[in-house]
Amino acid sequence: MSHFIRYEKNPHSERRDKQNLKRMFPFIWEYKGRVLLALASLVAAKLAAVGVPFVLKDIVDTLDAQIDSKLLFLPLGLLLAYGALRLIGNLFNELRDALFARVRYHAMRRVSMRVLKHLHHLSLNYHLDRKTGGISRDLERGTGSISTILNYLIFNIIPTIAEFMLVAAILFSKYKIEFAIAIFATVIIYISFTLWVTEWRMHFRHEMNAMDSAANSQSIDSLLNYETVKYFTNEEHELKRYDKTLQKWEAAAVKSQTSMSLLNFGQGAIIAIGVTIIMIFAGQGVVAGELTLGDLVLVNALMLQLFIPLGFLGIVYRQLKYSLADMDLMFKLLDKKSDVNDVDNARALVVSNAHVVFDKVNFSYHAERKILQDVSFEIHPGEKVAVVGPSGAGKSTLSRLLFRFYDVSEGRILIDGQNIKDVSQQSLRQAIGIVPQDTVLFNESIFYNIQYAKPGATKEEVVTAAKTAYIHDFIKSLPQGYDTVVGERGLKLSGGEKQRVAIARVVLKNPRILVFDEATSSLDSHSEQAILKALREVAQQHTVLVIAHRLSTIVDADKILVLENGRIVESGRHAELIRANGLYQKLWNLQLENHEKTDS
């Protein structure tokens, strides 16, 4: 489960609705002129709406008086005023919507951008723990909640409050106190009932959202791992797991719907009783001669005009509660701190010689298990240093620390005498290129994936990089050439083809420092030799760190470091380490044996 989902399962977790609304306000106020005009249109529309029952009262009273005097004529002016008020109300409502559209959608765009930027800023540790499907659904609901809140707040809650105040003022000034008491009592009972039932049924919605996010995570995860599912013929297992979560979602959804029906019926009953009581008061006034027939129509029209939006207010309240919960999840994500941050006023890394130093580096992902212990070595400008060792020795951790995906626990890493903790992460990563062991590509064209290293690169530059990586001929053989879409995570390409795309990207980026993290592990022997030749040419003017599994790929290294249990136990050139008859020599012999078995 994602951090969002865990939170959503607990409706009693601390929420910060007031603070969140304040944080949303700056996004709206960027278009304050439009906001003020939209509010002015809202007021104008409500004044026109409240004026309609008064004109209707005058029409009824005029016609009623004519019936008594038997001199009938059409009150054309009043009828035209009635139509004009309705037209004006509709005009200002639509004008309000049109003015506020830019405000609402601009706020959604800005928040979406800010969330994505923050997600990219969070450290690798967070992204290793996240559930992509759950987060995508949570973020979708979070950004959508802004539109919902603005929509209901500006178009429903504020107008209803304004209309209620106008109606209350009219009733107090023109009619007996009983009318106002009946209205206020109905509204208070209605709101109390709505709040009570909505709070009671909120946990059904929370459970629905949690199961929805979980099901979405499971479905996306199973599709991303399509090949693994097929390898183990686990289609039924994935469907059962997915359906089990959907069953819980279904049960919560049914409870949510049935409890909503109970809420709607109760609201309708309260409004019906309140309107009936008020109409009885009005009818008695007409019979007693205290009120005219127009007054009866006016009171009825005002009540309907007030209670129709008030009836909708129950739905608005529920949606606001859900939206506030969704928005709170999003803002909680924005408040999540990255484990790796730039220092204040971090300067840009200045690379002159590309001299890399690991100085007494200690590191652990978890306090109880150390990964690196007192690791010290140098990579001189233009030098190629390789790191080898058994699985789990901490080899790949070195590249993650150099990229500053994590900060060292103790010690320091220097580039040209600058501690990488003191420079900006962006400038650091711009100076380093990597060919990772597992290359993941965007679901875009091959051209896009190579050009990604340098977005403004020309077609000629991309082709040159592809030729250097020995993948140009393969690309040209494809029906769509460089426009071939590689599929989700590059699944349409083989492991070796993906790795050569990664090498082409690094060639195009042309950084001063290169990291090859088992960069030829997915290549056949023929391709490996071709790539190694290209990498040697590329590495001549670069400082290179090679993390190797195949020892045959690093026999030409200027220095080989042998890592075991997080410590450097041997170092030297290939021939020196073979003569030393230590761990490196054992690893070398083991690989020779495996190679001979494979050949046989």
Describe this structure in words.
With 600 residues, this protein is α/β, with parallel strands linked by helices. It has helices at 3-8, 17-29, 32-69, 76-121, 124-129, 132-174, 177-224, 226-231, 235-287, 293-334, 395-402, 425-430, 446-451, 459-468, 472-477, 495-509, 525-539, 574-580, 583-599, and strands spanning 356-363, 372-379, 384-388, 410-415, 418-419, 432-435, 513-517, 543-547, 559-564, 567-572. It has a 6-stranded mixed beta sheet, with helices on both faces. It has a 4-stranded antiparallel beta sheet with strand order 2-1-4-5, covered by helices on one side. Strand 9 and strand 10 (567-572) form a beta hairpin. The longest helix has 53 residues, at 235-287. The two termini are 47 Å apart.
User: Would you state the CATH class of the largest domain?
Assistant: Mainly Alpha
Report the order of strands and helices. HHHHHHHHHHEEEHEEHEHHHHEHEEEHH
Work out the count of structural domains. Answer: 2
Here the CATH topology of the largest domain equals ABC transporter transmembrane region fold
- State the helicity in percent bands: 55-70%
Share of β-strand residues: 5-15%
Shape, principal axes of CA atoms: elongated
Number of strands: 10
**Through-space gap between termini:** 47 Å
CATH architecture level-2 label of the largest domain: Up-down Bundle
Radius of gyration: 35 Å
Residue stretches low in confidence (pLDDT < 50, at least 5 long) are 1-13
The chain-level structural class is alpha/beta
Count of individual helical segments: 19
Q: CATH superfamily of the largest domain, please?
A: ABC transporter type 1, transmembrane domain
- How would you write the strand order of the largest sheet? 6-7-8-3-9-10
Nearest-integer average pLDDT: 82
Main sheet summary? 6 strands, mixed
